[in-house]
Amino acid sequence: MTTVDGHRFRAVMAAVCAPVTVVTTTGADGPRGATVSSFTSLSLDPPLVSVAFDRRSALLAEILDAGRFGVNLLGQGQDDLAVRFATRGADRFGDPTTWFTDRGLPRLRDAAGWVACDLDRVVEAGDHLLLFGLVTDLGRTDLPPLVYAHRTFGTHSRFAERPRPLITDQIAACAR
């Protein structure tokens, strides 16, 4: 089996645009959370998402114990939250982080989206574990998403320019 150099692999993967999320759970000592960019939708029926954690992650152990997790999809301008939740030893849920409990899970106020999950299964994947979450609740706002690529934060460059349906179209869609 041929393997590639880890530094080269990391450099190439840095060019892949990834969503920036803060994954949370409630542990024995209160709220827990960490910045995660390995999040994706997996299935519509049933609604499943996946997120990957390094096997040494303290948050991973808390999620495995709780059997549940939340995914806060960060929006443009929330770089500070991403950095805070990625910093070891930081008071992640202290001031100025604003959060509340939703469905028994810590949820960040003003996040662009929210997904609450029950842990469906765990798959071994090299030095990580891939968690599949069965979606039990979700929501979103109309904010540009925060993404990470080339070791910097940004957003989709044309998000604000996209066409938006007229309110009458939205009302008609709800009436169907």
Distance between the termini: 55 Å
State the total count of DSSP E strands. Answer: 12
Q: Over the alpha carbons, how many angstroms does the gyration radius reach?
A: 17 Å
**Into how many domains do the coordinates divide?**
1
Q: Number of helical segments?
A: 4
Order of helices and strands: HEEEEEHEHEEEEEEH
- Shape category: globular
Q: What share of residues is helical?
A: 10-25%
Main sheet attributes: strand count, strand direction, barrel closure: 7 strands, antiparallel
The fraction of residues in strands falls at: 35-45%
The helix-and-strand class reads alpha+beta
Q: Write the CATH architecture name.
A: Roll
**Poorly predicted regions:** none
User: In the CATH hierarchy, what is the superfamily?
Assistant: Electron Transport, Fmn-binding Protein, Chain A
Overall mean confidence score, pLDDT: 90
CATH topology: Pnp Oxidase, Chain A
The strands making up the biggest β-sheet line up spatially as 3-2-6-9-10-5-4
Assign the CATH class: Mainly Beta
GO molecular function: FMN binding; riboflavin reductase (NADPH) activity
Domain Flavin reductase like: 13-155
Protein name: NADH-FMN oxidoreductase RutF, flavin reductase (DIM6/NTAB) family
Keywords: Oxidoreductase
